[in-house]
Predict the structure.
Amino acid sequence: MALGTLYMVPVTLGDDNLSYVIPADVIKLIQSLEYFVVENEKSARRFLGSVKTNKPVRELNFQLLNEHSAEKDLPALIAPLLAGHDVGMLSEAGCPGVADPGATLTALAHRKGIKVAPLVGPSSILLSLMASGFNGQQFTFLGYLPSDKAARINKLKDIEKQSQRLNETQIFIETPYRNQHMLEDILASCGANTKLCIARNVSLETEFVVSKTIAEWKKSELPDLHKQPTVFLLLA
């Protein structure tokens, strides 16, 4: 029996820009799928409803893979692929497998000889780097920094030194309700000549992507980042 293909399905970063960020051919492929592994079923159903899948969304097959999933859950998730069904993997937003739990199932698919096919769509991380004007030849994505304030400040100082030593862009994110605290700590901890790009709501109507030095940011009116998806980029 032929194995199915695991499609890495990109999800819009908001609810109003489907045709802007996902190509028509990708939408057509997504419409044909009936099996999905998703990070959040509610948001996945909303996204697939906007895609207008060939079958009604209520008739599609959903399995969850999120931060609470255990290794023992993986055999059930991969079973449709082994049975010959194509499966779409959806992150809550953006590209699956990047800053989300999807990599575990993808790694198992490779071990089982299942084809993994990434589809074109929005990644806030890469879009922010593209728009920052920072070094796109050498960069590191750090994910989330420590939530503890003292540990976060120490980490910021470390990555600033790393950026200066290697001429490397440092990219990181924060839980949206802590974004403003992150910005305050960056401005208080980093050197005046270090460059900071703030990329908020990338690809949406409320998009804000601005790069300035720390000194320039301190003289500027700061953007409201509270509960709004934001990517931070540093280049010392």
Summary: The chain has a mean pLDDT of 92. The two ends are 54 Å apart (CA to CA). The chain has nine helices and ten strands. The CA atoms of residues 105 and 141 lie 21 Å apart.
